């Protein structure tokens, strides 16, 4: 389907060798009369689809990094194995995208050189495996982590304008090998089909900004105040979670609310602990090996005080930031113990820090006594009650009667005709930008969790969220402005300029390739005549 080669023999040979695994020169390929068949074209189309598939997965992999610590904790609870699986994800994704990218670039260069696209069977098998691996990854994501589809949709509000520019640029570059293919292909029907598909894709891309929305497309003077930072179990990237050190590090990060989880020991002492078991964040397996699998509430306070709640942080390094801790911080982390709620309330009172907590486990038979004991500690601590944000739903009315000054935070959206002044705490995937704006107008405080990546923080900032719960307080603290903010008029101008430049480059590519094809044909005709004459003379 393609005419003879149009570039130097050495370059063509260098391209053919890795793509077709044919370790012979391009001249020999020409003498063998190999051409790109419809079968070869179908494999090129499959290669292009696999590349796009892996590219989309790469985008998803980057987006879900915001929530990957939750996945690491989930795996530990299931397998008792701690590993930063985000590194495995990124390395595997990088290998897949690099492989398909290199093959695609080779194929496009071969097309520009007029060489046959004879993909080797090894590459075909590897491409099929790549497609299956990525498909399995998407399937697993949909089954076990379906909320990440909402995360991807939110991410488009941060990346949409830039993805549009990038895709338009990529399709514009694709016009060069496409024009070469059009002018070398003899089949009129195929030419018309390819051109129609390309034109339809470009028109859709040129008009795509009509459907792109982002809360960060606004005037500078319309930007809401920066959201308040809520430390998720303190500052878990800088200190062991749910410890006094983590609270103090959170204060250094300008965190205004310390979010934590409270349990009650067997002898009635409220203490800080997230997991129902102690194995992840303490050395309970070494101190009480026969009781390690018991619920945290089965231990009395004396037993809990014997546990090391900091060394795991240095050994397992749940976040990359652990490697950069100073010697002093490492020493302090290794000395951490499980703190009681009384100790935490005293530290919060001294730092003028609010505390928001959940009381776990809610399905415990003694839950009402847990509520009463916890309330008693709060009232005895002397902390101003407006600094206490109460999350548990169980026995909430009793809490309102015993401690009327406590602020109540609800893990749901507001009900119809509900009074203003509510405090709502939800996953960031459960609130749209429009809902956040409406709640803000109705004087409803919205806290979203868990927000670690600057792009996500920027989108929520532009949307007008009141506060965010974060693991990365040290990162978000330094953000004085959203990552990007564009007035609508500026974005409109960028859109028009990008589309116009792309259109002109595509026209230039087709015109230039047409001239090159016209120049090549007379030379190829003279060569063919000369070879025919030489062949006739040799036969005579």
Automatic annotation (TrEMBL):
Subcellular localization: Membrane
Protein's membrane topology: Multi-pass membrane protein
Gene Ontology MF annotations: glycerophosphodiester phosphodiesterase activity
UniProt GO BP: lipid metabolic process
Keywords on record: Glycoprotein, Hydrolase, Membrane, Transmembrane, Transmembrane helix
Annotated TM spans: 41-65, 85-113, 125-143, 163-183, 190-212, 492-512
GP-PDE domain segment(s): 227-480
Pfam families noted in UniProt: GDPD
Single GO cellular component term: plasma membrane
Family: Belongs to the glycerophosphoryl diester phosphodiesterase family.
The protein, known as: GDPD2 inositolphosphodiesterase
Gene that specifies this protein: Gdpd2
């Amino acid at each position: 389907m393609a005419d003879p080669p149009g570039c130097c023999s050495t370059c063509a040979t260098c391209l053919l060798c890795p793509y077709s695994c044919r370790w012979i020169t391009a001249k020999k390929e020409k003498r063998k009369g190999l051409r790109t068949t419809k079968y070869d074209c179908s494999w090129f189309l499959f290669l292009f689809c696999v590349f796009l598939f892996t590219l989309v997965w790469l985008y998803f992999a980057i987006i879900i990094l915001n929530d990957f610590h939750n996945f690491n904790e989930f795996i530990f609870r299931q397998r008792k194995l701690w590993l930063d699986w985000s590194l495995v994800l990124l390395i595997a994704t990088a290998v897949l995208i690099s492989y398909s990218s290199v093959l695609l670039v080779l194929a496009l260069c071969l097309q520009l050189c007029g060489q046959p696209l004879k993909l080797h069977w090894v590459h075909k098998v590897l491409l099929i495996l790549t497609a299956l691996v990525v498909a399995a990854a998407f399937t697993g994501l949909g089954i076990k982590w379906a909320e990440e589809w909402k995360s991807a949709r939110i991410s488009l509000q941060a990346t949409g304008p830039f993805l549009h520019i990038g895709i338009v640029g990529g399709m514009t570059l694709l016009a060069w090998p496409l024009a070469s293919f059009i002018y070398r292909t003899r089949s009129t029907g195929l030419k018309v089909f390819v051109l129609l598909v390309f034109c339809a894709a470009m028109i859709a891309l040129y008009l795509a900004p009509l459907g792109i929305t982002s809360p960060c497309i606004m005037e500078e003077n319309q930007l809401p105040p920066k959201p308040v930072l809520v430390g998720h179990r303190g500052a878990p990237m800088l200190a062991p979670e749910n410890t006094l050190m983590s609270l103090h590090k959170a204060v250094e990060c300008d965190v205004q609310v310390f979010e934590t989880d409270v349990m009650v020991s067997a002898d009635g002492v409220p203490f800080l602990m997230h997991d129902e078991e102690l194995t992840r964040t303490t050395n309970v397996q070494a101190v009480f090996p026969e009781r390690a699998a018991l619920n945290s509430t089965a231990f009395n306070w004396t037993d809990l005080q014997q546990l090391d709640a900091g060394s795991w942080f240095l050994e397992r390094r749940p976040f990359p930031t652990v490697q950069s801790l100073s010697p002093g911080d490492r020493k302090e982390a290794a000395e951490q113990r499980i703190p009681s709620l009384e100790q935490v309330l005293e530290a919060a009172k001294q730092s003028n820090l609010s505390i928001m907590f959940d009381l776990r486990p809610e399905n415990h038979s003694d839950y009402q006594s847990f509520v009463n004991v916890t309330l008693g500690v709060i009232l005895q601590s002397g902390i101003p009650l407006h600094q206490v944000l109460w999350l548990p739903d169980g026995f909430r009315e009793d809490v309102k009667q015993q401690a009327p000054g406590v602020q109540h935070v609800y893990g749901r959206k507001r009900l119809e005709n509900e009074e203003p002044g509510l405090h709502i705490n939800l996953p960031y995937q459960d609130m749209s930008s429009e809902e956040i704006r409406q709640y803000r107008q109705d004087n409803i405080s919205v806290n979203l969790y868990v927000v670690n990546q600057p792009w996500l923080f920027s989108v929520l900032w532009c949307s007008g969220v009141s506060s965010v719960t974060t693991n990365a307080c040290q990162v978000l603290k330094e953000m004085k402005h959203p990552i990007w903010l564009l007035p609508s008029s500026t974005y409109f101008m960028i859109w028009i300029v990008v589309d116009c430049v792309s259109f002109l480059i595509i026209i230039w590519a087709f015109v230039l390739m047409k001239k090159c094809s016209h120049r090549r044909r007379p030379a190829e005709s003279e060569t063919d005549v000369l070879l025919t004459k030489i062949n006739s003379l040799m036969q005579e």
